[in-house]
Task: inverse folding
C-alpha cells in the first residue's frame, strides 16, 4: 500500500500574542494523496495560511506531526526544513512576491541557481516554464512592466522551477479580476493534472474550490466534518 504524500496527525499550532496563546490550528488530522487537488476554505483567520505554512515547511506544529513524502518535519533543523521545502514544495501567493529588480526570467531562474543548478540549465528551464505559462515574449520584462495576471504567471513558473511534488497556492486569484483569475486557475489545474502533481489551494472562492477533487473546511482552526 502506498503511503499518502502528505499526512497531518493531531496537529495543533499555537502562536503568542504578547503573553496570550492563540490557537491557529486545533487537532487537525488529514491525509492528501499524490496527484490530488485539495481546496481549503474558511474565513479570514480560520487557519488556512497556517495549514499551508506547515505543509510548506515554513513552520512546524506545536503538537502533532506533519509528514511530507515520508519525511517528518517536526524534529528537522531549520536548514533541513529549507532543503525539504526547496526540493518538494512550490508556493504561489496572492501578492506574487516577485523581486522587482529582476526580470521574469531572473525571477524564475533564481530558485534553481540558489539550489546549485548550472546557470545554462537554469536559464533554459526558466525560458521553458515562461513559455509554458504563456509569457515567451515577456521574459525580459520586470514586474512593473507586467499586468497582475502576467505577474501571477511568472510566480507560477517560479513555483514550478524545481519540479516540486507539492504545489501550495494561497489565494492565487484573490488579487485578480474574475476573468484573469479563472485563466490562472485553469493553468494551475491543467499543469497539476497533466503532471500528476499535488496541489493544495487556499481560497474564498466557491467556484475555484469546486474545481478541486476535494474541499476541506476550516473554522476557527478546526477541520469541519
Result:
Amino acid at each position: 500500500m502506498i503511503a499518502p504524500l502528505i499526512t497531518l496527525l493531531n496537529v495543533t499550532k499555537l502562536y503568542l500574542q504578547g503573553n496570550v496563546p492563540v490557537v491557529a490550528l486545533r487537532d487537525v488530522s488529514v491525509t492528501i494523496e499524490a496527484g490530488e487537488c485539495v481546496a481549503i476554505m474558511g474565513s479570514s483567520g480560520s487557519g488556512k495560511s497556517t495549514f499551508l505554512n506547515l505543509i510548506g515547511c515554513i513552520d512546524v506544529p506545536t503538537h502533532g506531526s506533519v509528514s511530507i513524502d515520508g519525511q517528518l518535519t517536526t524534529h528537522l533543523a531549520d536548514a533541513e526544513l529549507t532543503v525539504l521545502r526547496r526540493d518538494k514544495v512550490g508556493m504561489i501567493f496572492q501578492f506574487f512576491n516577485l523581486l522587482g529588480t529582476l526580470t521574469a526570467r531572473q525571477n524564475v531562474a533564481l530558485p534553481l541557481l540558489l539550489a546549485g543548478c548550472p546557470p545554462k540549465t537554469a536559464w533554459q528551464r526558466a525560458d521553458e516554464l515562461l513559455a509554458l505559462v504563456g509569457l515567451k515574449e515577456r521574459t525580459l520584462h520586470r514586474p512593473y512592466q507586467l499586468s497582475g495576471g502576467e505577474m501571477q504567471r511568472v510566480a507560477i513558473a517560479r513555483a514550478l522551477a524545481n519540479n516540486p511534488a507539492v504545489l501550495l497556492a494561497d489565494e492565487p486569484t484573490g488579487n485578480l479580476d474574475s476573468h484573469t483569475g479563472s485563466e490562472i486557475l485553469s493553468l494551475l489545474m491543467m499543469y497539476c493534472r497533466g503532471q500528476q502533481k499535488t496541489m493544495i489551494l487556499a481560497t474564498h472562492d466557491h467556484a475555484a474550490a469546486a474545481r478541486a477533487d476535494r474541499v476541506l473546511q476550516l473554522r476557527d482552526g478546526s477541520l469541519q466534518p
